[in-house]
C-alpha cells in the first residue's frame, strides 16, 4: 500500500529544506521532492557570486552558517545547505519533477516524473530561477543569447551585450569586462537600478571611464548572428556582437500553480492567493512558502525573510492534524 506522508514539500531550495527541518522536529512524516539538484537556484548563480546578506541571515532551522567573510559566497552556501541536508538526514528525492497534484479522498496524490505519493498536506516551495523573463525580440532563440550567466572566462575577447540594470547585470558586465570581454550594457531605465553597494560605484566608474559602454533608456530590438540592434532616444544603433547576456530577471512557474488550482491575481503581478497567517492557499491543505508567494514581485521575499514561512506552515499543519485525530 502507498505510504501517506503528513507533508510533501515541493522544492529543495533553502525554504523547502527549512520546511523539512520543521516537519522533522514536529515529528511529522515528510518527503521533499526537487526537480533539479539540491538548492538548484543557488547552484545556477554565477560561479563567483557573493551574497548581499550575511551568513547568519541565510541560516535555516537554527543551524549555524559560518563563512570566511561577512558576506558568504555561492560555494559556501552550497556547502552549508549540503551539510544541513546531511546532518539532519533530510528525506529528499532529487531530479524528480512534480507533474500533477490532485485530491484523493482526504489526501492529495502527487504525481511525479518517477512515481506518485500520497500526502495529507502539501507545501509548494518553488523558487523563481527556472523561468527567465524573455526579451520577446527577433533572434532571442539564437544560441548566443543567454539568460543565465555563470563563468566570465567563456567571454574572453568576445563582444558582449549585457541587458539589465540590477545586480545580475552589474556582476556580469564587470566580471566579463575584467576577463577581457568588450562589454556594452543596455538599460531600459534612465539609470542603474538596485545594485550591491560595493558593486555600483565600480560599475559607474567603468562606464564613466568608457571601459564599459552603456546605453540608457534603450532596448534591444533585434538579435542576429553577428549583430544586435538597439533602439535609443537618438535612434537605432547597430553593434557588432558575439553574445547577449539577458539578465532580465526570472519568474515563478505560474503554469504549475494554475494547473494544480492555486488562484492567481489577474493583473500583471500574478499574486497567488494564500492566507499570510498560515500560508494556506485557496486549496485546503496546500501551502506556499518562499519567493513564490510574491508572484512577479520577486524582490519581496528572500531566504532571510521567508524562512519563517516554514515555521508558520508546520505549526498550522501540526495543529490541524492534531484536531483531525480528536
Automatic annotation (TrEMBL):
Molecular function via GO: oxidoreductase activity
Keyword field: Flavoprotein, Oxidoreductase
Keyword Iron-sulfur: no
Highest taxon, organism lineage: Bacteria
Pfam families according to UniProt: Pyr_redox_3
NCBIfam families the UniProt entry points to: Bthiol_YpdA
PANTHER family: THIOREDOXIN REDUCTASE 1-RELATED-RELATED
Stated name of the protein: YpdA family putative bacillithiol disulfide reductase
Organism: Pontibacter mangrovi
Amino acid at each position: 500500500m502507498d505510504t501517506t506522508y503528513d507533508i510533501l514539500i515541493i522544492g529543495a531550495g533553502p525554504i523547502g529544506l527549512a520546511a523539512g527541518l520543521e516537519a522533522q522536529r514536529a515529528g511529522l512524516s515528510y518527503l521533499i521532492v526537487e526537480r533539479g539538484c539540491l538548492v538548484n537556484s543557488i547552484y545556477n548563480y554565477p560561479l563567483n557570486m557573493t551574497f548581499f546578506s550575511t551568513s547568519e541571515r541565510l541560516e535555516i532551522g537554527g543551524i549555524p552558517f559560518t563563512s570566511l567573510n561577512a558576506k558568504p559566497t555561492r560555494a559556501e552556501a552550497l556547502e552549508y545547505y549540503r551539510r544541513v541536508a546531511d546532518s539532519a538526514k533530510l528525506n529528499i528525492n532529487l531530479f524528480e519533477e512534480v507533474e500533477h497534484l490532485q485530491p484523493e479522498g482526504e489526501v492529495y496524490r502527487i504525481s511525479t516524473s518517477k512515481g506518485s505519493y500520497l500526502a495529507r498536506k502539501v507545501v509548494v516551495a518553488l523558487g523563481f530561477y527556472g523561468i527567465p523573463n524573455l526579451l520577446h525580440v527577433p533572434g532571442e532563440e539564437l544560441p548566443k543569447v543567454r539568460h543565465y550567466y555563470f563563468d566570465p572566462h567563456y567571454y574572453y575577447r568576445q563582444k558582449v551585450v549585457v541587458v539589465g540594470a540590477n545586480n545580475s547585470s552589474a556582476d556580469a558586465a564587470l566580471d566579463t569586462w575584467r576577463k577581457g570581454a568588450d562589454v556594452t550594457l543596455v538599460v531600459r531605465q534612465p539609470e542603474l537600478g538596485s545594485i550591491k553597494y560595493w558593486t555600483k560605484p565600480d560599475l559607474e566608474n567603468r562606464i564613466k571611464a568608457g571601459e564599459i559602454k552603456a546605453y540608457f533608456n534603450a532596448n534591444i530590438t533585434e538579435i542576429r548572428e553577428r549583430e544586435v540592434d538597439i533602439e535609443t532616444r537618438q535612434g537605432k544603433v547597430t553593434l557588432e556582437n558575439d553574445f547577449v547576456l539577458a539578465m532580465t530577471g526570472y519568474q515563478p512557474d505560474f503554469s504549475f500553480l494554475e494547473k494544480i488550482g492555486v488562484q492567481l491575481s489577474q493583473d500583471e503581478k500574478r499574486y497567488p492567493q494564500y492566507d499570510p497567517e498560515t500560508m494556506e492557499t485557496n486549496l485546503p491543505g496546500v501551502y506556499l512558502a518562499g519567493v513564490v508567494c510574491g508572484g512577479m514581485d520577486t524582490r519581496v521575499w528572500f531566504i532571510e525573510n521567508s524562512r519563517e514561512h516554514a515555521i508558520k506552515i508546520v505549526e498550522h499543519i501540526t495543529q490541524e492534524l492534531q484536531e483531525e485525530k480528536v
